[in-house]
Amino acid sequence: MKTRLFLFLMLLACLAADCLAANETTLYLNKTRGFAPFRYGCEEGLVIENLTDTLQFDYLKFGEDINKIEIVFRAKNENANPLKKYPYYDSDGRKNHVKNPKWGFFITTPADTVVVMMQGNEEETLPEPTPCLDIRVYKLSDGSSHAKKFISGFNPYDKDNIWKVTVNEGIIGIKGGDTGIQEIFNLSLGKDLLTGFGYIAGWGARLVIDDIACTLVSDSDNERNRLPFIKDKIDEYLSQSNDMMEGYWTIYDRDLEESLLKMGGQYVMACIKNGDDYIFLYLDGAVVNQNAWTPGDEKIVLHPTPFRGLYDVEWTDSMKEKLKYEIRAQRGEGETLLFQFPYQSSKLRLRRMP
Fold this sequence. Notes:
Blueprint: H1 2-14, E1 19-20, E2 24-29, E3 41-42, E4 45-49, E5 56-62, E6 66-77, E7 86-89, E8 95-98, E9 103-108, E10 113-123, E11 130-139, E12 144-150, E13 161-168, E14 171-177, E15 182-188, E16 196-201, E17 206-218, H2 227-230, H3 234-239, E18 247-255, E19 265-274, E20 277-286, E21 298-304, E22 310-315, E23 328-331, E24 336-341, E25 346-352
Parallel strand pairs: 1-5
Antiparallel strand pairs: 2-17, 3-4, 4-17, 5-16, 6-13, 6-17, 7-8, 9-10, 9-16, 10-11, 11-12, 13-14, 14-15, 18-19, 18-25, 19-20, 20-21, 21-22, 22-23, 23-24, 24-25
């Protein structure tokens, strides 16, 4: 097991992934909102199915300034039935079987990786064996490990458990349970910045994750407010900008549920970075309530999430009221931005103008 964990750590060093960065941001990932930038998100959830004899994982690489996290999620290993064995194949293509395959999650820093592995099992008791969950924490920097066995408070087999992982002031806290959560481990990681978090499926496992709530906090102090100084000099400012988001944008295409959301015009806007946000300033194109719109008015605000290229959105409608429900924007192919309005069952794309 330790040899394979070492190989797994080497893989992490070579992994290219999207970066996270935020002062304090919470992102919710589930079957409705999707799981990007995780690689294995699908309609069932975040699913890591391992038919090989090596560890399979999905991983988020954080930005360089994350020092606190709180991650809550639901997880189950569907291939965890004490009466069954599950197939996997070795590197020569030979078929093998394993009972109660392992799964886990991990946290990385520049100097260390902490891996938490779970396995459903049976405690030898009379008159019959008692289901239990074995949990072991590995700290790869010094090779240490700590194990605990739980015979209550968890579903050890193929049903959901809730997990909560926190890192604060260099201490990792791990809690979990099926109907409530209980403390599992608290251990020191050192006051280093955090570089990533991910999930592992052992050979034969089919890990299904859902309802991820991820809060990240950074020490970054990047508070700037340049907007009042450049509204009157937009052309000059944008001509000197090297930021690919800054520029002139307009409506590209849309798929709207007209009974819930209608466009107020073919807007032309200027996008300007303001601190960590991007502000889209109205320039032209209003049709509905046209007299209320003046060039320089704020139309859209993009707030960065922990995931690069994904934003929370404040959208001001044609009547100059902010839409109440969740809106997300994501960088798309070419110089486009995809806006998703889940409550209104609508989508819209902006295109950056030459």
